[in-house]
Amino acid sequence: MNAIQSKRTFMKSEFGASHGFVSDQMKGIPPPPVQKPYDANSRLVDLPKPAEEVLSQQYIGACLRQRRSRRQFSRRELSLEQLAFLLWATQGIEEVAPGGYASLRPAPSAGARHAFETYIVANRVRGLDQAVFRYLPLTHQLLLEFAERGMARKITHAALGQQFVGDSAAVFVWSCIPYRGEWRYTVLAHKVMLLDAGHVCQNLYLACEAMGCGACAIGAYDQQAIDALLRLDGEDEFVIYLAPVGVV
User: Fold this and answer.
1) Nearest Cα to Cα of residue 244 among 218, 209, 206
2) What is the Cα–Cα distance from 222 to 245, expressed in whole angstroms?
3) What is the mean pLDDT of the segment spanning 231-237?
4) How many domains would you assign to the chain?
5) How many CA atoms lie within 13 A of 97 on its CB side?
6) 45, 115, 136, 238 from 48: Cα distances, Å
7) What secondary structure does DSSP assign to 108-124, as a single string?
């Protein structure tokens, strides 16, 4: 077996051997919160309710046929209504199960664990400052994380110099909080959380196509640089995926 073949093991299902692991859920330990806590004094931005009026294409077949990775964006702003719909379409919460052990959202997730937090690097969003926000799906709000000069340039650098990232109206950055999945699936959570990231981003693609916007999924980035840029610890929470969005 060569070096490349030896790395394929992670892609294969090992759930048949899961009897060897005892999860925190099986131990009766309460689940981690479905949303990362925040300071009650933080600045919050109320988002418009997700409304289909922002969609110019109502037919899913057309959205599937037209879906492409878009790397060229106009200089037009993204409206707050458009951003609100995209946030809901990717990680909005429709229902939380009793006890908070699961949440139901437009994107599927193994065990309904939804191990992600959504950060928005706002470059040109009408009604928002140029800053970094975090989506609060429980209340459909944005939390201002911080404002920092040169974010477009810095996130382009963290994305290995891909200029269209900084040229976008907004960058969706998904972090992963691994324990949300590990609580239920222990080490077997790591594969399915990566699958879940794909579900989330595909929802973004289709919603963007439906409203005349574009997105491009990015897995090539400097892990340490982008974690530091978003002020994440890189261990209990780290960036797993990102996608710039803009009007095309």
Assistant:
1) 218
2) 20
3) 98
4) 1
5) 11
6) 10, 24, 13, 28
7) --GGG---EEEEEEESS
